[in-house]
Amino acid sequence: PEEKLNLDDSQWEDIHVVTGALKMFFRELPEPLFPYCFFEQFVEAIKIQDNATRIKSIRSLVKKLPRPNYDTMKILFEHLKKIAAKESVNLMSTQSLGIVFGPTLLRPEKETGNMAVHMLYQNQIVELMLSEYSKIFGS
């Protein structure tokens, strides 16, 4: 049965509850927003030393995503960019958002021994996509 939420309930005034719900939604998807088959490609792209080439590579991967993933990602990252823009108030930098959302949006299908390394790349990918949003999602 579908759960009906009362958004007038005072619990939704707590931003941590809303953020937790958003993260849980993305974590509970059958497949992450960045599909499993793209994980290694995104990791390889973030490792590119030249910044312009790295951005181009990420942009090209993002454009290859299934349409629903792309559309959701574009809206989500646009929203997260607005949060990062208010860092002085909410203390959420692009780096913090990368740490919070990286492992939720992007993970390997099979967890291997190099989880710490993966986590670093997951964070960096989200961070780059926020800081270079217009270059990655722009027309």
TrEMBL record:
<dbReference type="Pfam" id="PF00620">
    <property type="entry name" value="RhoGAP"/>
</dbReference>
<dbReference type="InterPro" id="IPR050729">
    <property type="entry name" value="Rho-GAP"/>
</dbReference>
<keyword id="KW-0343">GTPase activation</keyword>
<dbReference type="GO" id="GO:0005096">
    <property type="term" value="F:GTPase activator activity"/>
</dbReference>
<protein>
    <submittedName>
        <fullName>RHG15 protein</fullName>
    </submittedName>
</protein>
<dbReference type="GO" id="GO:0005737">
    <property type="term" value="C:cytoplasm"/>
</dbReference>
<dbReference type="GO" id="GO:0016020">
    <property type="term" value="C:membrane"/>
</dbReference>
<dbReference type="GO" id="GO:0007165">
    <property type="term" value="P:signal transduction"/>
</dbReference>
<keyword id="KW-0963">Cytoplasm</keyword>
<feature type="domain" description="Rho-GAP">
    <location>
        <begin position="1"/>
        <end position="137"/>
    </location>
</feature>
<keyword id="KW-0472">Membrane</keyword>
<dbReference type="InterPro" id="IPR000198">
    <property type="entry name" value="RhoGAP_dom"/>
</dbReference>
<dbReference type="InterPro" id="IPR008936">
    <property type="entry name" value="Rho_GTPase_activation_prot"/>
</dbReference>
